[in-house]
């Protein structure tokens, strides 16, 4: 393999695929980036077996040459050093030559670096998604769905299925659900799909979705999604993002969601978030994160927390709307703040079904998103 390439294009592609390189790869070759050059351009691939990312650099873009090929071929170079070296090269053009299957020379200006590579024949083949179910979603919509749910996945590896987000598709609506058994987040949107297509159990690791979200451009990009029983592939401009699905059956969460409340309120999302943030400052010192919310008469609610060593915070707020039974409830303020931060609606609707029943949060008049938080039982 021998070619010259624009440094900016190579650096961008490395930045895309290196997200799939594990700092502690299960086999040494997965610590590398595979490069494949042909007349079409240069393809970079990285994988940790759970997630694989490919980035393609075309030979030309907008009528300007990007890759000049003198000889095709493949090689694998250590991701860390390859990335650092390319970033620090002195000129805008990089020459890359494989002297044999396991050795490469990189030239830029007066700099010449020789790197020991690995055998490309030993690099895992990207999994196939032949005969996959297929739908398309707007990039910004997909990014928003991930942002609104992925924070609620479990960090406990003892229940692997809950470290992922459940994807379900029915009647042209894509719904994402995440829960760690203490909180739950759901979000949905319309997608372009065969109206008869139905998907029930696509569970994608939260870490994988965070990396996918960072790769989705902030423009009108359309993401093509192909899914099988064990794999999912996301196609966007110049990038293939492949993920293994988590094994297991995601729990049925539909039974804990209700629209019948004993107490409900509508108020400013920002005002509530600010009050809970202030209460959180004391609750975190007790390492419990417990904040209490109660109705206090006169159409007001009270948000409070305390610390034996520091003191107490009490704040009264008048919601836009408050109806139903009197209420005293305690909850994890960190969970509540996580949910409030992804709600971009000016007003929020909160429904309570009792002091020991789930708290349901929705953007006011927005049926496409909800968050659920389980309360704490306290002695006071």
Description of the structure:
Helix 1 packs antiparallel against helix 2 (79-87), helix 3 (139-149) packs antiparallel against helix 4 (206-215) and helix 5 runs antiparallel to helix 6. The model has no long low-confidence stretch (mean pLDDT 94). The protein has six helices and 29 strands. It has 380 residues and is α+β, with helices and mostly antiparallel strands. It has helices at 7-17, 79-87, 139-149, 206-215, 269-283, 333-341; strands spanning 2-6, 32-38, 41-47, 51-58, 60-61, 64-65, 67-71, 73-78, 93-100, 103-108, 111-116, 133-138, 164-170, 173-179, 183-190, 192-193, 199-205, 222-227, 231-236, 239-244, 263-268, 290-297, 300-307, 311-317, 321-324, 328-332, 347-352, 359-363, 369-373. 17% of the residues lie in helices and 45% in strands. The strands form five sheets. The protein has a nine-stranded antiparallel β-sheet with strand order 8-2-3-4-20-19-18-12-16. Strands 17-13-14-15-29-28-27-21-25 form a nine-stranded antiparallel β-sheet. The chain is elongated and about 80 Å long.
